[in-house]
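Continued from yesterday's entry.
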Amino acid sequence: MDLNNIWEDFINRIHLDHVVIFIEKKIMAGIPFVYVTVEPHTSLDLTTQVIKKHAVKAMQGKRLTLELNFVRSEENLHVYRMRFLVPQEKMFCCGNLCFDCIRLRNL
């Protein structure tokens, strides 16, 4: 699964929201941060809800989870540490007869 497509979809969706003026993704030390500039007098809670709403829409139909942590704020700019997490379980059979093979799982 290519997470770049998920990020692209998320950024394209959030650009259309009337609350968000500008959004930028920056990667520092391997961790993605989202810099969100919002309309004046927009609360932090509303900004967080907008980000979650569009992230959920971008993840729809995929087995991903969202990790969103507020970092700091300065006037209309809010910074979040944001990651789309892929499940850490085997999703396919590799053919090596592993003890936790997906073929041996009871549904």
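--- second protein ---
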Amino acid sequence: MRATALAAEFGTPLLVYCRETVLARARAYACVDPDTLVVYGTKAFPNVALLRLLGADGLGADVSTLGELEFARRAGLSGERLVFHGNNKSDAELQAAAQTGALVVLDALEEIERARTAGVRSVLIRLTPGIEAETHRAIRTAHEQSKFGLPPDEAVAAVAEARAASLDVAGLHVHIGSQLTRADESVLAIERMVDVARTCAGWEPRVFNIGGGLGVRHTLGEKVPAIEDFAGELVRHVRARWPQPVRLILEPGRSLIGQAGFMLYEIGAVKGTTAAIDGGMSDNPRPQLYGARYEALLASRADEKAAATYRIAGKHCESGDVLIEAVDLPEPKRGDLLAVPATGGYTLSMASNYNGVPRPAAVLVTDGHVQLIRQRETVADLLRFEPPNQG
């Protein structure tokens, strides 16, 4: 279906997903190792339709809050395919994870007794290996000052304490960050995880959860390894370093859905070489948070040659609300449609209602068929949260 038809039917901004791309990337992970459980990192975009699509293909879900757990449950995912994370789980979250039968990743020593009291049975211990991933600092998760997990000595102690508390310690977990463009640091993290496993007296893991984090290519100049190469290297390294039988878990999020989605905007005011769109930091805050960069094209005039380099600004009351600093385009005009590729992950999931702007709709497209998977919010939706009798 043409972008103009999508915009006419569903409005803009609009997040558009390709169903076949999502499934192709999920199957690329599944083909790396048939005995590996692949769980979708729900935080990339919690959505029942996407979770159901991935679940039907054999994937599970990585969740970290009551909200993400409920998305997975409504998508029909059962406990044996759920991994529950979180660096500050509430008692209610631990109880819900226990009731669902999810595998719980313990993140702190004090969580052990609380998990036992909540009825949790099977757990992993999250290791913080002290590794600086080559990515933006805000999305590194395994360095020494990370809020996540336990350093090696405490992880060894956690295994012993959790077993003494009658918890089934199934294995270890490690994840070093997001938007990774090479496997080197992840391989080193696996080395340290294996070292921790060998240090634990009288215990052998049945599960190694080696996380996710593979990036996607947002600009023409970026280089990102293929799923098969990145995940394949990690799996091969685990199998070589730990020859005993062990089940692996992978937790991709962005790399499953990032390239499968694009944002569609309508261009409004054009001032010289700055073109404003009808969205911005409320539907995609990543440029402001992480310095993320994107490409774009005029979807309504894609066959025209570029006329100049333009800046794409958002509509919000912030000078920093700039989606793209520089992109070559035909001369944009009010009413043109701008498509921004590789925006399927961590856009709507991090969206806000800044300036009272309702969040966009999302659709899933395949072979000319369009499924609405998230309704567009309205101003009336925002006002529902205001107490009554206030004018």
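The CA atoms of residues 65 and 90 lie 9 Å apart. Residues 3-15+260-383 form a domain with the Lyase, Ornithine Decarboxylase; Chain A, domain 1 fold (CATH 2.40.37.10). Will compare against the first tomorrow.
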